[in-house]
Amino acid sequence: MPWWVWVVGGVILLAAELVAIEAQFYLVLLGVAALLTGLGVAIGLPGQPYTEWGLFVVLAVVLMFGLRRQLYGRMVGSPPPMYEVVVGEIATVSETIEPGAMGRARLRGTDWTARNVDRITLTKGQRARIERVENLVVDLRAEED
Question: What DSSP line would sit under 95-136, residue for residue?
Answer without folding.
Answer: S-B-TT-EEEEEETTEEEEEEE-SSSPBPTT-EEEEEEEETT
